[in-house]
Amino acid sequence: MSPRSISEAKNQASPFDLNRRDLLKLLSVAGLTAPLALPAPEPGAPLYFTKEEFALLDALTELVIPADGHSPGAHAAGVAAYIDKSVAEAFLPEDKQTWREGLAGVNDLSHSLHSKAFLQGSKEQQLAVLKKMSASEQIKRRSSDPEQGKPTLPEKFFGQLKNTTIFVYYTTSIGIHQEIEYRGNVLLDQFAGYMPDEPLPPVSSLSATS
């Protein structure tokens, strides 16, 4: 083949090259004229749970630590939102699955007891569901046999729900500063000390000694 023929063969584009170039052109134009529009996340929407699951979780945490005259409860402290974020960021699939299955188990138990979903029940009916869920804990306290009171799914989930709610609540500003009234490091004029086997000195004596 002559040098001229080789040069002409190189300059002649194959159908694959033409198609690839055309495709790149189309993609470039499409990117400039019609940018990809992704739906914006709804403000305040749960990160992992559905809205129904999140509402159930929020109600359950508030029943575990309700508001009272002293301090707000788990709802105001945002416990459910914290759990939702933690579960959404969980690496292991089972860490997500246990929460979703547990919430479904709560509704199943509510249906078996009251023929309605948990959130549709009255406050008394909801508390009755929680009492039923905590049954295995009560049995274990009364029995030394580890085989006694093997927990059902709702009973197992109750321990997970309760422990997580307590942990999260007492790491929030409401739990720390309003519930237990922690004020941080406070400078004391004098530390009197405390011996468990000895009575505490009267408060008036603390300022009398130096």
What does this protein look like?
By secondary structure, the protein is an all-alpha fold. Helices cover about 60% and strands about 0% of the residues. The protein is built from 11 helices and no strands. It has helices at about 5-10, 15-35, 50-65, 75, 80-90, 95-115, 125-135, 135-140, 155-170, 175-180, 205-210. Helix 3 (about 50-65) crosses helix 5 and helix 6 (about 95-115) crosses helix 9 (about 155-170).
Helix and strand topology:
Elements: H1 3-11, H2 15-33, H3 51-64, H4 74-77, H5 79-88, H6 93-114, H7 123-133, H8 135-142, H9 153-169, H10 173-179, H11 203-208
Helix pairs in contact: 3-5, 5-9, 6-7, 6-9
Q: Can you describe this structure in just a few lines?
A:
This protein has 210 residues and is an all-alpha fold.
Helix content: 55-70%
Shape: globular
With helices defined by DSSP (H or I, 4 residues minimum), what is the helix count?
Answer: 11
Oligomer: single chain
Strand content: under 5%
How many E-type strands? 0
Largest sheet: none
Uncertain residue segments: 13-18, 30-38
Order of SSEs = HHHHHHHHHHH
Based on helices, strands and strand pairing, what is the structural class?
mainly alpha
- Terminal residue distance: 111 Å
Q: How big is the Rg? A: 31 Å
Mean pLDDT: 78
